[in-house]
Write a structure and sequence with these properties.
Elements lengths: L2 E4 L18 E2 L1 H6 L3 E4 L9 H10 L3 E7 L7 H9 L2 E2 L4 E15 L5 E7 L2 E5 L5 E5 L5 E7 L8 E2 L6 H12 L2
Antiparallel strand pairs: 1-2, 1-7, 3-8, 4-10, 5-11, 6-7, 6-8, 6-9, 6-10
Keywords: Amino-acid biosynthesis, Cell membrane, Cytoplasm, Dioxygenase, Iron, Membrane, Metal-binding, Methionine biosynthesis, Nickel, Nucleus, Oxidoreductase
Organism: Ovis aries
Catalytic activity: 1,2-dihydroxy-5-(methylsulfanyl)pent-1-en-3-one + O2 = 3-(methylsulfanyl)propanoate + CO + formate + 2 H(+); 1,2-dihydroxy-5-(methylsulfanyl)pent-1-en-3-one + O2 = 4-methylsulfanyl-2-oxobutanoate + formate + 2 H(+)
């Protein structure tokens, strides 16, 4: 099952866990109230998984590819890692399914504090449009992930501050309704 926690304020290596002291774990229900969805799937059968197909059909995830993030496989690795860790949001959902390896998604809560979500093989997450977030590898420096989209992929990140955009306004309205 996925593990999530509030982060400390340390500015050192982002690949470290950065758990707040004392520990402040975050459960799936708290993530759901932020609009973050989670599934645990069998990554060894992703090519023929009826559960993944059901989710894709229900949520209209029609496009997918696979990305491997490590120094040997990703062109412009250092630049991309820095870009992934810059706080941003997207106009559409961000859907990632970890097929191998591990990493962290960080999302902002209602009070603008960071929650770290540890993702490993078999974890699938959907971040809602308009949520500020970032991604980093962990100390293993390797992840292979499926990227899913509704329709054609749009990769545009909107770095903070971008609160004037409609996706952010809709997200804040969602938070207000679910408070």
């Amino acid at each position: 099952m996925v593990e999530a926690w509030y982060m400390d304020e340390a500015a050192d290596d982002p690949r470290l866990p950065h758990r707040a002291e004392p520990a402040r774990p975050v459960g799936l229900e708290q993530l759901r109230r932020l609009g973050v969805l989670y599934w645990k799937l069998d990554a060894d059968k992703y090519e023929n998984d009826p559960e993944l197909e059901r989710i894709r059909k229900e949520r209209n995830y029609s496009w997918m590819d696979i990305i491997t993030i490590c120094k040997d496989k990703l062109p412009n690795y250092e630049e991309k890692i820095k870009m992934f860790f810059e706080e941003h949001f997207h106009l559409d959902e961000e859907i990632r399914y970890i097929l191998d390896g591990s990493g962290y998604f960080d999302v902002r809560d209602r009070e603008d504090q960071w929650i770290r979500i540890s993702m490993e093989k078999g974890d699938m997450i959907t971040l809602p449009a308009g949520i500020y977030h970032r991604f980093t590898l962990d100390e293993k420096n390797y992840v292979k992930a499926m990227r899913l989209f509704v329709g054609d992929p749009v990769w545009t990140p909107y770095n903070r501050p971008s609160d004037h955009l409609e996706a952010r306004t809709r997200y804040l309205e969602f938070l207000a309704r679910t408070a």
